[in-house]
Amino acid sequence: MAMDGKQKTLVQTVGVVALMGGLAWASVPFYDWFCRVTGFGGETSVAESGSDVILDQTIKVRFDASTDRDMPWEFKPVERKMEIRLGETGLAFFEAYNPTDHPIAGSAAYNVTPFDAGGYFTKIDCFCFEEQILQPGERVQMPVTFYVDPDIINDRDAKHIEQITLSYTFYEIDMPEQQAKAEIGQPAKTNLN
User: Fold this and answer.
1) Proportion of the chain above pLDDT 70, given as a percent
2) 32 phi and psi angles, rounded to 5 deg
């Protein structure tokens, strides 16, 4: 049975809508992957250990901290700037304080500027990899271990960068279920599987 013109147009329209929906669904994970691989948008790299190569060339790393306007924490870098050699492992601390009378959970978003340096700024360990919970009046220092990949000197756009800024913004998130139940005195469910 052959389709008439209206049926063919309808099938093509449904096909285009389905294709566009599929592309929209896939765009977020694809964009996230693209940023992690290329450093686009200031996305950093992650490594299990430090660099095998350390150069004599140095670079300044500046640290910036802020909170979302609805986040009541105080949050700041302990040290605002350091100078390290390319490939050398650096350790920086950020301080967070919960001035409220109740526990607050937070998650940190981060980026690196200039964006060309994002793919070369490599985190080994970071407080931003996990959510953080601060009790009332609690003050903590949270570490980030990192290095700047020596391959930055081979990038025609990034090799002239003299300073990199690592920025974090903390956002309030919902309290994890076990923590929330503990706060109101209910036993938390334990998964035995």
Assistant:
1) 74
2) -60, -45
